Amino acid sequence: MKWDQNTRRRETVTWLPEAATAAVMAMAPSQPFWVEEPIWPPEDFAAMATLRRATGVPQAAGENASGALDFRKMIEAGAVDYVQPSVIKIGGITALWRIATAAEADGVTCVPHAPFFGPGYLATLHVLAAKARSSALERFFCDLALMPYGKTVPITHGHVDVPDAPGLGADPEPELMRFRV
Hints:
The chain is an alpha/beta fold. It has a single domain, classed as TIM Barrel. It contains 7 helices and 8 strands, in the order ββαβαβαβααβαββα. A 4-stranded parallel beta sheet has the order 3-4-5-6, covered by helices on one side. Strands 1-2 form a two-stranded antiparallel sheet. Helix 1 (17-27) runs parallel beside helix 2. The longest helix has 13 residues, at 93-105. The radius of gyration is 18 Å and the shape is globular.
């Protein structure tokens, strides 16, 4: 991501394979935790694997993946250190669990893509809690007037407890359910 001074917005930056190595190597001294989907198009797993080997900088990918086969291909290509399946896009909790389990059996950490504020967020928390290997939660942050599950499943000092009520563990706050557009 980069900040555009003119529009005052963050812009996603990805590179064609021939430009990626120099860009990622420029970041290497900062020791990024990972570079996310640095190659365009994001399905070019061979180019991602080449970039990973050339730079030694960890890579993450998967929020654009359309199915379990995409994750298998990126892992087999050696393209990623972290896979980021989205419970909403990938087919639910069982599909996310299968991808996470298979990836981690191959030594690749699953850090689900979870920019959601509703049931997808809760479902992702449950899968993360069940995994053998602990990992971060990639979550979109913004200040909303009403934050779904902000009171019932609060994030405290960077940590969140998995809710344990029936279903996905929590209900939306009553004031949110009364809100009308």
